[in-house]
Design a protein that fits this description.
Blueprint (H helix, E strand, L loop, with lengths): L1 H5 L5 H15 L8 H23 L5 H19 L6 H32 L4
Helix pairs in contact: 2-3, 2-5, 3-4, 3-5, 4-5
Length: 123
Amino acid sequence: MAETATRAWTRPHDWAEVVLGALAVLSFLWVSTDNTAMWTMIVLGALIALDGLLSLAMPGLVYGEGVQIVLGALLFISPWVMTYTGMTGASWSSWILGGLTIVVGAAALPVANAVHRGMAGQH
């Protein structure tokens, strides 16, 4: 696992983040939304997926996992903040995808820290 964590494009946590972001971006295709809900999910989902891709390309970046956790929290609270809790499908999609993004980001944090410490002597 240690060797896999240091190689670009091989970390499963980061692939999960890309998939979760893509699901958030595309969720308006299968759930009822209004403009606010749709664009909130598209923007946050795209940011989650892009940060996951950045973490995949550069496995030594520790801040990427922290950004994932923050973006997941924003997606999780977005139904309340952007007032689309009345749209059941959009709300549940945000809550589930946001919660999973938080969990996956938190699980990837120790791996990213270990890779960063291992790469510190290579600068």
